[in-house]
Specification:
By secondary structure, the protein is an alpha/beta fold. 39% of the residues lie in helices and 21% in strands. The protein has 15 helices and 23 strands. The strands form seven sheets. The chain has a seven-stranded mixed sheet with strand order 12-15-16-11-10-18-19, sandwiched between helices. A five-stranded parallel sheet has the order 7-6-5-8-9, with helices on both faces. Strands 3-4-23 form a three-stranded antiparallel sheet, with no helix packed on it. Helix 1 runs antiparallel to helix 5, helix 4 packs across helix 8 and helix 11 packs across helix 12. It is globular and about 80 Å long.
């Protein structure tokens, strides 16, 4: 029988690892129990903040902002550089905490921390590239330009599935843009958050920056709601479900704040008759089964041409049968546990509904390791073959459940890809250049991420990350996503000694 660690072993490992990252485990202890999805048993007990703590945190962050916005951006970049260095030192420790708290396999947990290091590298370069523009003025002796300035306090609400990386995307960029960050992490991953915060606190001390540039408030929904509603939070970046985004967006807008929303995905791959099926199979299996299906970019639909759909389904089913499921801390494991019982039950209900709607379960389904870990939920990644895009197929199920649908012509495939409420990530597997270009064009995929011959997950930090429609429209990480964290000013400088007015207006007193 595959071994699952005991609760006491994981408890000790969690405390020792957090301590190495700089967490005072005695100071953060409390009476709220967290559970590890690895074995379904108690991991640690932590203290929670409540909504009343937000006002004090914002006050302190605003005081830090007054100091930090005066610091030249390249000097702000030095802090982020130091953060990246410390993250590299603690890479294995942070990865261990991620595995313990959310069940990611070691290589994916290490990959998440590497993503944190990479965004620090990106942000350090960005600190010297916060470019404005100079535009030609219609008036002689005038200069017209735009400048970018620090925005203010940034609130970050993150989800369990990337318990540290999403915070780092926001924080590294916000800090070089001149903004402090208040973080409300997932209740399911408090130690990962506290460790990340401790590492940044050390970097702040090393660089002599204001201490309150970083604050973390471990707590429940009331903390998030207080951040959403606080007039002192200039930008609220929230990652979570579409349902959560429907509540957050209007409330931030009502106080004329800015929001950056990263919400649900129902991501598809179109597989054409010319696709390399070896490449396609590898790309689909990682995107669909990796992270136990708990990424917003997880592939949830395969839309395959009728001439290849049977062969591809057989290949995927064969690959699924070989997937090693088990303890995410063990070498060789590729699929770890779902986060909790509700996630597993949601997957089971979706499979049942898909079968009721005409689908056929062709691979996986059900629980694994139930005897070894009765309180943990190791789901067998499932494939359902179905001939039409039914209600359940159009709905995101946050678990390793993949639907395979047929299509007859490329326009139909694109329409199926787009015919869901979400618009995060998509891909096409093809050797036909015209099909690839069409999928990338304005007539193609309506998603924020559109790939060719690669899966839907595993985005690099250099590109802006985010999606359209019910995914929220926000963009984080690379490209020009930094603009969300700054305010733009349009400037006109008159050095002519005269006062000509724009548009030829005459107004002489």
């Amino acid at each position: 029988m595959r071994q699952i660690p005991s609760g006491s072993a994981l408890h000790r490992l969690a405390l020792d690892t957090a301590t190495r990252c700089g967490v005072d485990v005695g100071a953060v202890a409390g009476d709220v129990m967290t559970v590890s999805p690895v074995n379904g048993e108690r991991l640690v007990d932590v203290g929670w903040s409540d909504g009343a703590a937000v006002d004090d945190a914002v006050t302190r962050a605003q005081a830090a902002f007054v100091q930090w916005r005066r610091v030249p951006a390249p000097a702000r970049g030095a802090l982020v550089k130091r953060l990246g260095e410390l993250l590299a030192v603690h890479k294995d420790d942070l990865a261990t905490l991620i595995s313990l708290e959310v069940g990611k396999i070691t290589s994916e947990a290490r990959g998440e921390v590497q993503e944190m290091i990479d965004i620090c590298d990106f942000a350090v370069g960005l600190s010297r590239q916060l470019y404005g523009r100079t535009m030609p003025s219609e008036r002689p002796g005038h200069r017209l330009m735009e400048t970018w300035h620090p925005l203010g306090v940034v609130g970050v609400i993150s989800a369990f599935n990337f318990p540290a990386a999403v915070w780092s995307w926001n924080t590294a960029v916000a800090l070089v843009c001149g903004d402090p960050v208040i973080w409300k992490p997932s209740e399911l991953a408090p130690l990962t958050a506290l460790a990340s915060h401790a590492i940044l606190t050390q970097a702040i001390a090393d660089c002599g920056a204001p201490a309150d540039l970083t604050q973390v408030l471990v707590g429940g929904a009331d903390v998030g709601e207080a951040l959403v509603d606080h007039a002192g939070v200039a930008l609220l970046s929230a990652t979570g479900s579409t349902r959560m985004g429907r509540a957050v967006g209007p409330r931030v807008a009502d106080r004329f704040g800015r929001s950056l929303l990263e919400l649900g995905g129902n991501n598809a791959a179109v597989v054409s008759p010319t696709a390399d099926l070896d490449l396609t199979t590898r790309g689909v299996v990682f995107s669909a089964a990796g992270t136990a299906g708990q990424r917003c970019t997880t592939m949830r639909r395969v839309i395959a041409h009728r001439s290849v759909v049977d062969e591809l389904t057989d290949r995927l089913s064969s690959a699924y049968a070989r997937l090693p499921i088990g303890n995410p801390l063990e070498d060789g494991t590729l699929v770890g546990p779902l986060i909790h019982r509700a996630a597993y039950e949601g997957m089971e209900r979706a499979v049942e509904q898909a079968v009721d709607e005409g689908g056929k379960l062709v691979a996986g389904g059900g629980r694994d390791l139930e005897e070894a870990a009765p309180d943990a939920f190791y789901a067998r990644p499932a494939i359902v073959r179905i001939d039409r895009q039914t209600d359940v197929v159009a709905r995101e199920t946050f678990a390793p459940l993949l639907y395979v649908l047929p299509y007859d012509d490329f326009e139909e495939a694109v329409a199926l890809n787009n015919a869901v409420p979400q618009g995060l990530s998509s891909s096409v597997f093809t050797s036909d250049q015209a099909e690839a270009e069409k999928f990338l064009s304005a007539e193609g995929s309506d998603c924020g991420i559109v790939n060719v011959n690669i899966g839907t997950s595993g985005a690099e930090i250099g590109g802006a990350f985010g999606g359209e429609k019910e995914t929220g429209g926000g963009r984080e990480s690379g490209s020009d996503a930094w603009r969300a964290y700054m305010r733009r000013a349009t400037n006109t400088v008159n050095y002519s000694g005269e006062l000509p007015l724009a548009q030829g207006v005459s107004f002489t007193v």
